[in-house]
Automatic annotation (TrEMBL):
This is Guanine nucleotide-binding protein subunit gamma. One of its GO terms (biological process) is G protein-coupled receptor signaling pathway. Residues 53-69 have a biased composition (Basic and acidic residues). It is found in: Cell membrane. Its main location: membrane. GO terms for molecular function: G-protein beta-subunit binding. It is a lipid-anchor. Residues 1-69 form the G protein gamma domain.
Length: 69
């Protein structure tokens, strides 16, 4: 797409994007970090990566072993 555009058009697009980004409301990390921590802690009880998947509900568990006779 950029190959079909002139340098002037590309600069206009970049300027428009920067104008949008300047007006985006921002929140300090110090304010969002505690919220993020509490969210992760409340959701960790249901997280299968933390507590694991029960053997009977694991869809990737091998159904049977290899038998060599």
């Amino acid at each position: 797409m950029a190959r079909d555009m002139s340098d002037k058009d590309i600069l206009k697009m970049e300027l428009e994007q920067l104008k949008k980004e300047v007006n985006t409301p921002r929140t300090p990390v110090s304010a969002t970090a505690p919220e993020l921590i509490s969210f992760v802690e409340t959701q960790s009880a249901e997280d299968p990566l933390i507590k694991g998947v029960p053997e009977d509900k694991n869809p990737f568990k091998e159904k049977g072993g290899c038998i060599i006779t």
